[in-house]
Specification:
With about 190 residues, the protein is an alpha/beta fold. The chain is about 25% helix and about 20% strand. The two termini are about 25 Å apart.
Amino acid sequence: MDSIIQGKAYVLGKNIDTDQIIPAEHLVYSLSDPEEVKLYGKYALSGVPIAEAGLPEGNRPFVENGKFESEYSIIIAGPNFGCGSSREHAPFSLQVAGAKAIVAESYARIFYRNCVDGGFVIPYETAEALNKTVMTGDELKIDIDNNTIENLTQETAYTLKPLGDVYNIVMSGGIFAYAKKENLMSS
């Protein structure tokens, strides 16, 4: 498994809730029809007020109009990311849009578990307010083995809280796939 995630940063503030991640009116699409699944990517983070989307300047949508995938693969956020309802559609929509990792000061616990249990996106935690220093569009490199994030644009580096088994669970495709792979449950 590749233990490096590299890509552009998309920066958000604090208390990004699941209605901002995927607004309720977009929960009507099929999770099994490939054409409808694309719509989850199209509308990922579309509920974030545009002035607060893509900080520090804002006014940058996560997914460009008319597209289904984002150019940003690493989300940087403040505390309490994923608060609100318990919908699994929120981390799913981020995955469909192309997000590989989220780095936030803290998460709503059910959102964090949905990221991991569904194998959708890696939820890293950091003690630093990276959303105050990283800018949308900065090129980032996360080293999973060393639990670090490097801002290649600004030439700075930070330590991330260790993931434990989270990385292997997400990369396996979720908690059930991981349990089967590790022979933790009968077939």
